């Protein structure tokens, strides 16, 4: 798919009728997330010696939302299409060892052709945020995750996706991935701790 050329680290696939979902269906994200968070926690401990409370859940939420944010924002920015963000059409393929997204698959839906760039970006953003907010709000986490973190992550990933497409540095975030709490790691670009 042409969109994959703009998303260097994420393969974009359009599913044919009968194609299975990739590893994680967004419509089942809330059901799958607890196991994914636990497995990601164990993987982080094996790699870094610790997994700070809240960090595995923050990464899983980011991994759920970033592929759809990146794909929808890129399509809206580089084409005339505002992709339908309905969770039922999206699934994410994960790296088999490190569990981060490597592919996103979408099924046929009611995508909108909009020539006006500002209108297209607003329609795309509204659709993405509706799906992302639902996932972020309902995501079960083993430790408390504030609404600022959840909803901030949804908005942050949209802004980060637009910045990548424009070749701009990451914007200041409202949410935190907590990577700074791992041994030897520093806050990432845009971290709210750097304000």
Portion of residues in helices?
Answer: 40-55%
Q: Nearest-angstrom radius of gyration?
A: 16 Å
List low-pLDDT spans. none
| Count of helix runs | 4
Query: How would you write the strand order of the largest sheet?
Result: 1-5-4-2
Tell me about this structure.
This protein is α+β, with helices and mostly antiparallel strands and 195 residues long. It has one domain. It has 4 helices and 6 strands. The protein has a 4-stranded mixed beta sheet, covered by helices on one side. The chain has a two-stranded antiparallel sheet with strand order 3-6. Strand 4 and strand 5 form a beta hairpin. The longest helix has 24 residues. It is globular.
Defining key terms:
195 residues, alpha+beta, two-stranded antiparallel ribbon, 11% strand
Please outline what is shown here.
It contains 4 helices and 6 strands. With 195 residues, it is α+β, with helices and mostly antiparallel strands. The protein has one domain.
List the helices and strands and how they pair.
Elements: E1 11-14, E2 24-25, H1 29-48, H2 55-78, E3 81-82, E4 90-94, E5 101-106, E6 112-113, H3 117-138, H4 147-166
Parallel strand pairs: 1-5
Antiparallel strand pairs: 2-4, 3-6, 4-5
């Amino acid at each position: 798919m042409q969109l994959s050329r703009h998303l260097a680290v994420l393969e974009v696939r359009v599913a044919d009728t009968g194609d299975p979902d990739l590893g994680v269906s967004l419509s089942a994200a809330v059901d799958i997330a607890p196991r994914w968070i636990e497995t990601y926690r164990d993987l982080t401990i094996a790699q870094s010696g610790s997994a700070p409370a809240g960090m595995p859940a923050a990464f899983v939420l980011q991994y759920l939302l970033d592929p759809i944010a990146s794909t929808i924002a890129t399509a809206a920015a580089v084409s005339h299409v505002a992709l339908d963000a309905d969770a039922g059409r999206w699934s994410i393929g994960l790296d088999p060892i490190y569990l981060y997204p490597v592919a996103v698959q979408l099924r046929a839906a009611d995508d909108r052709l909009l020539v006006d760039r500002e209108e297209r970006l607003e329609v795309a953003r509204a659709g993405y945020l509706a799906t992302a907010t639902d996932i972020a709000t309902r995501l079960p986490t083993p430790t408390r995750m504030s609404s600022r973190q959840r909803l901030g992550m949804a908005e942050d990933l949209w802004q980060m996706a637009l910045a990548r497409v424009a070749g701009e540095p990451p914007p200041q975030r409202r949410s935190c991935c907590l990577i700074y709490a791992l041994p030897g790691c520093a806050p990432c670009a845009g971290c709210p701790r750097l304000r």
